[in-house]
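Protocol step 4 of 5: obtain the predicted structure for the target chain.
Materials: sequence only (see below). No template structures provided, no constraints applied. The aim of this step is simply to have a reference model before the mutagenesis design in step 5. Sequence pasted as it appears in the construct record:
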Amino acid sequence: MDIFFLQVNELKKRCRELYIYGAGLYGQNIYKILKKNNISVDGFIVSEIGESESLFDIPIYSIRNISLDNVGIILGLNRHNTVDVLKLLRQLNFDESKMLIGSEYIDRGAVRGGYDEIPTIEITTRIGCRINCRYCPQSSLLSKYFCGKNDREIIMSFDVFKECMKNVPQEAVILFSGMTEPLHNSYCIDMIDYALNKGHKVDLYSTFSEVSMDDVKTISKLPLEFVGLHVADKRKYANIINDEEYYQKIEFLINAKKKDGTPFVSVCNSQTEPDDRVVDLCEGKYEILTTMLDRAGNLQDESLYSKKTLHGKISCSLCGEQLNHNVLLPDGTLLLCCMDYGMEHILGNLRYQKYEQIMLGKAMQQIKAGLSGDEKVNILCRKCSCANLVEDV
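Step 4 output (structure tokens):
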């Protein structure tokens, strides 16, 4: 049994009750993982109660309305929120020996950019994704991207990529993911190699679908920081061709190692319950995460994780108030983030502007005014699952 589950069971023995702190994507995935391993919890704890007072038929409690005497807590939060909640629990004199950090199990120690000072540029290498997942607002992106501009670049050329890279800060993380399958651009591996040679940390999020085994092996040798693997699901919500070659690629990837001996793949997820054969291949190596979100209201489905519209001051749980995890489109357009499939927040164009100039521009200043509480400014963030309320101190 994985050491994480041994630690959870030991915590249950020592404590009166066991709770997951966080009812969002991480908290829900921690719950599913524990349930799969026959470990029960007594409820969820959150900093702010939302519209629902229960999840998976167990109660949700506000941190202000629950006794923390002799309870165990598993933090089911992303790394940014984990820092904030740790500060809060310390202020409440919570015994940290009765706490586990769930993100360390889910992320397996992988650290991505986009947190606070470190910007991340997320590359959309083409417009129109052949994977066309059910829970991905491709139609919204296509209609807005080509509205009145039918001649816009569909495929990001290597030249455009290099032009944009000239305007990106050296410390920026380059993430090949964006709003499509990045490897369906034939220049993608060259782009990854180019960014690495420029000294950037590079991440990749891919299905590896319709990619040759030779290319998979080439990519596995690259010094990538973070690799997210999106796998086939039982209901085929993701249009991944799961033929024999596909399973061979998955088996190769989940067993691949970096030069330092750590796993090449950092995390796995799928649109719904993962394909049975993929589950068997990942057994004992990876938990496959399945919680899907509504992309800040760009998708409508009762099975998606969504959030009520927030009022007052807010911040992003992924990149704080810096808002520096941005999405680059094939023609150089820079969007606010990976939720903005409707292209509501166009920040500028990296082909012609320095990143620092864009981040000080009018579009970003308006968004930050909205974050600060000016509700006359219509911002996508207010209905985003990654948004948090900011309390005045």
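Step 4 remarks: The mean pLDDT is 89. The longest strand covers residues 17-21.
Proceed to step 5.
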